[in-house]
Amino acid sequence: MSRQVRAAVAAALAGVLALGASTTSAAVADESSEGPGGTSTITGLTTTDHGDGTYGVPLLGSDVPDISVARVPAAESDEGRDVYYMISTTMHLAPGAPIMKSFDLVNWEIVGYVYDRLGVGDVSSLRNGQNGYGNGQWASSLRYHDGTFYVVFNTNDLGGSYLFRTDDVEHGAWERTPLGRGFHDPSLFFDEADGGTPYIFYGSGATSAVRLNDDLTAIEADFPNIFRAEDYAGERFVGGLFEGAQVHYIDGEYYVAIITWPSGQNRQEVLFRSPHLLGRYETADGSNPYVARSALNSDGFAQGGLVEVPDGAGGYEWWGMFFRDTYPLGRIPALIPATWEDGWPTFGDDGVVRVGDTFAKPIVLDPATERRERLKSIVASDDFANDAEHRAFSDTVWEVPDAPTYDESLLGVELVANPGFEDPTTAPWAAQFGATLTRETSGAASGTGALRVAGRTLNGSGPNQQLGGKIQAGVTYEVSARVRYATGPSTVRFNLVGDWGAGVKTLAWADATPGEWATVRGTYTVPTGTDVSTFKLAVETPWANPQPPSSSVEYLLDDVSVVGRAPDVETPTREEVSYNGSDLDLAWQWNHAPDNRYWSLTEREGWLRLTNGHVVTGEAEYTKAPGRDLTYLEEARNTLGQRTFGPTSSAQTRLDVSGMLDGDVAGLAVYGRSFAYAGIQQVDGERTLGLVTRLQPFADTIDREAVESFVPGSQVPLGERTDVHLKADADFASPNGQLWVQYSYSLDGRTWQPLGARQGPLVMDWSLSHFMGYRFGLFSYAKERTGGHVDFDHFLLSDVLDADGGADRTALDAVVAEAEGLDPAHYTAESWSAVAKELAAARATTAPSTQNEADAPARALALAVASLVRADVAEVAFTAEASVRALAGKDYVAVRVTNDEDVPVDVVVTTPYGSRSFADVAPGRHAYQAFASRLASAPAGEVTVSVTRSTDGSTATRTVTYGG
What we know:
mainly beta; globular; 9 helices; 964 residues; 55 strands; single chain
């Protein structure tokens, strides 16, 4: 799409989707007026701030679902102003539970994550065929209370809900507490009317709560079904879902915001109000005191909560922060003003909110701050220079379980005794549930004997044999048996089952017909960690109520076999889950937890290297839905992604494919369960570029080679060329509700060609296996052997779709001129160094061949200029020292920082072995931390210390050495 066509489409979409930002022009700022950049029109890619005191809904134009917002009052904020933080759902992605920050509730940036990975197990790591698609972290609740930040979220597949806490939401590590059970859509609430007593509200179809102990580590009391959907029978606004509770205390009343979806209507938000938090548990007669009212039923905006904004008179205005299903782009948040009357809010314009509506911003910023904030975004271009700030979540130390050991004498041998009933007795086979067992000497499937199973009255009536002490957890078993019945139903299913106290598990099954021997055959992997000391092998027919005719069928059994094979499983390692020295921009997330051995920003300076450390098996299925095959792309580890954004978004990258091996595939994707990617495949030493597209409908069983074969006519033989430029133009607006992607390629970085036709439509998969908006992804995977690698030079974003004649560099030239007109002496060395870096990159962009190549450096430079800090303030005074100390045979790096200021300071210490933040270090006091190296002799190194003065935000950074 050309720039001119895009402008026309964007104008037509005012009622369809809030625009991102445009980069059509920029004006040179007058440094003598308000500092740098006062009039530039460059804005962030995900802002909907119009720059005139208004904004559009939805916010961000990208997938940010299940939002929860917490406010830090100005009196408790290092910024000297109210600061808002927001959390969202990212499910199986890692790092996860993103923390976003805003000064005005409109412009947001990502400032951290709660965790680096949810665990080291197979499900979180795409290991051994397991995966967390549609599972992982859901619906977090973010709260700030008494100087501590808390997050609670539920996991569908990892042991229920977890509570995390930190005293430094942007730079600190989070402490994790498992709550031991699941809470659907949890909402943490501190009841300030009762001294801050902590509760978690939760539920679907009904709202329940638990009370936590004072240190929020355990559940003290349960309050099920405080109010239920059925309590409001007859109310048109109460129906399906009835979940997503968020609790607030306003003017002596408790409000619970709930999403509902009544039959035949839109998703909508309902408020429940009561003077009693626990409802019927606090009324004398046990009646439900919660009164319900429809709060918002307009254009699908729903699920979220209320956010307080100081009104300047000692009180608060309460705004709604909800989201809207806007697939395939995702679930997009919306800040909606409210008018209150008689204790109830009306949202929007007299209860009406439409996509594209404009509202006045709740918080007005000074011009310089507003310019800087409007340049921030939740997506980012990247030059892979490894210069992103190191974050504490990267230093999480995981307990890696020892690799399992097995009794090899029990592998590869028959575990069933008397498997073919050749012995003169039926021992050690035993009958269960009333069956009778006799040995038959005629009519056997093989040999001279078979087992007759008679007297059956239940589906479980039949033979069993104890295999406890022989079966091993984590081992895969090949199981088989022969069965035949003479009379009965036209078909009978026979199941070989195992029972070890965790419920009967079907190991293999087959359908038989009268008079014919049928073979039951299959494989079964006993879950790791399972206690199988009481394992019992049995033969059953399917259960039903009442018992079906098959439950009384008499049959012959022969040739039963259970043989274990040496496990071919991968176990986690310390290196896989430990920090590898590379720091990505916070806009990036991995598709499942990464293997940190096989990606790097340090192996080749200025490039991202993805090394194929695993081979896709072509056998993986959705763990959440067994029997539904994964594609190679879905099974591949270390796919690195960012959100797409709407209504149009473009991503460009450059690949060096010289390190690929036969069977390797790498490229640039736009992916969900449907996907389209431009990929390079190497076969028999020849590399070919082509287009791969997977669209709905989906079959449960797939031919993976066929699914990821090139679109006919899109192939480009690369010959000896190893330098490939790829560009994906994602259009969510032509038409609305569909995503169409046009890929382009260049082999010289200057001349671009379309790679096949526009691909689509990519739409939402409502199976919830990929319940998120489409993402851009950089990927590489191996189908034959490990060791190949691909390098990515950059990732360039734009909201302009064009590969049709070069770029408009007006904005780039304007911000370069602005930066060149500034005097470096007026600004701190640290802030000017950021400008100098981005200015050099912008100057080097002499002939951009795409809009991405012009927009990415323009935005980066504009943000650096807007973030300049004037140097007319005194240097921050502090003393720092570092040394190596030994304790219990291991070295520790001890760091002491003394505040030489006469006001409190914040301190951040970064070492090769972790980092630590200290808030409000008093004058004359010191911050101290000993970092464990886990080494008997730690090598000499450096510690970086940053100290920020509380009064003016000035920061000084210094490096000190230790050892040697």
